[in-house]
Design brief:
AraC family transcriptional regulator, transcription regulation, Arc Repressor Mutant, subunit A, DNA-binding, sequence-specific DNA binding, 5-stranded antiparallel beta sheet, 44% helix, 2 domains, alpha+beta, 295 residues, Jelly Rolls
C-alpha cells in the first residue's frame, strides 16, 4: 500500500530511533512506514487518523502505531491559520521488529512482547491513567545511549505487553494490502477530507479527487475502508465538534455545528447522538460537570 511511504532516517549504529518534533503543526499527510511508532504528544491537539478510524489527541496522549499502519496526526484548524503562534511537539520512538532487532524479538523470553506487537498492527492508545509511567520510559530512552537505552526500551516493551483490554485504534480487518495506485488514491481522498471537512463537502467533489464517478467512488471507499463515505466524514466532524464543545471555543452549539461542516442543527444533533451516544447539550453538560469535580 503506497500511502506516501515515509523513510525514517536511521543514524549509524542505531536500531532505536528517537525523534523530537517541534513544529507549527504535525506532518499533514497520510503516510506509513515499516517501523513501529510510539508517539508521546507533548504539545498540540487535533485528530489522529489511523487506518480507517479517527481519534482526538491532545497533550499527554501516547499512541502505538503498528508497522505499515497508515496514519496522520492532523493538527486542529487553528494551527493552520495565518499568523498562528501555536506549536506542536511530539517525542517518538521508532523501531523495526523485523529489521536489526529481529534476533532479539525472536528470543523465547520476548515471546509475549512479540505477540503483543504482532497482534497490534492496528495500533493502540495507552490509557491516560498509565501515561505517566510510559512518558518516563520514553524520556529515559531519549536521554540514554548504548546498553542502558536498550535495557530501558525492553523494559518499556514488557510493560506495554502486560497491558490488558487495550482498544485498537483501527478496525482489525482494515485492508492494508493495496496496489500502489489504489493506495495513492485513498491517501488523496483521506487528505482532502481531513483538510475540508469544515466546509461543504460534496460527494462529487471527493469522487473527483479519486477520479471516479460518485457511485463508483462510494463502492470503492467502502471496499477499502469498511465504512461508508458519509459515516467516515461524520466521524471526522463529530470528533472535531467534541473538541470544540470541550474547549468552549465557540459561543453556541449551533456555531459548533456549522463550523464542523453540518448544514443544520437537526442533522448535527442526530449524527452526534448516533456516534457519541448522547446529545451535544448533554455531552457539554457532562464534560463541564467533570471539569468542575476535578477542579
Amino acid at each position: 500500500m503506497k500511502v506516501l511511504p515515509f523513510t525514517i532516517p536511521v543514524p549509524p549504529g542505531k536500531t532505536i530511533i528517537v525523534q523530537q518534533e517541534v513544529l507549527p503543526h504535525f506532518y499533514p499527510h497520510l503516510h506509513r512506514h515499516a517501523e513501529v511508532q510510539i508517539t508521546w504528544i507533548k504539545k498540540g491537539e487535533g485528530t489522529l487518523l489511523a487506518g480507517n478510524s479517527m481519534h482526538p489527541f491532545s497533550a499527554g496522549d501516547i499512541f502505538i502505531m503498528g508497522a505499515n499502519l497508515p496514519h496522520l496526526f492532523k493538527s486542529g484548524p487553528e494551527y493552520f491559520e495565518d499568523n498562528s503562534q501555536l506549536t506542536s511537539e511530539a517525542l517518538t520512538v521508532f523501531f523495526d521488529p523485523a529489521g536489526e532487532l529481529a534476533a532479539m524479538f525472536n528470543l523465547l523470553e520476548m515471546g509475549l512482547v512479540k505477540s503483543f506487537f504482532n497482534q497490534g498492527q492496528a495500533g493502540f492508545k495507552i490509557p491516560l491513567s498509565l501515561s505517566a509511567a510510559f512518558i518516563r520510559y520514553i524520556a529515559q530512552i531519549q536521554h540514554s545511549t548504548g546498553a542502558l537505552q536498550i535495557a530501558t526500551f525492553v523494559e518499556m516493551l514488557g510493560a506495554m505487553a502486560a497491558l490488558e483490554d487495550m482498544q485498537q485504534l483501527s478496525a482489525a480487518n482494515f485492508v492494508q494490502h493495496m496496489t500502489d495506485p489504489e493506495g495513492m488514491r485513498i491517501a488523496s481522498v483521506y487528505n482532502y477530507i481531513m483538510h475540508n471537512y469544515g466546509s461543504t463537502l460534496t460527494l462529487d467533489d471527493v469522487a473527483r479527487q479519486a477520479h471516479l464517478t460518485p457511485n463508483a467512488f462510494c463502492r470503492y471507499f467502502k471496499k477499502h475502508t469498511r465504512v461508508t463515505f458519509t459515516a467516515f466524514v461524520n466521524k471526522v466532524r463529530v470528533g472535531h465538534a467534541c473538541k470544540l464543545l470541550a474547549n468552549g471555543d465557540l459561543n453556541s452549539i449551533a456555531d459548533v455545528a456549522y463550523s464542523c461542516g453540518f448544514s443544520s442543527i437537526t442533522n448535527f444533533n442526530y449524527v452526534f447522538k448516533n456516534i457519541v451516544g448522547k446529545a451535544p447539550r448533554d455531552y457539554l453538560n457532562d464534560y463541564t460537570g467533570t471539569v468542575k469535580v476535578n477542579n
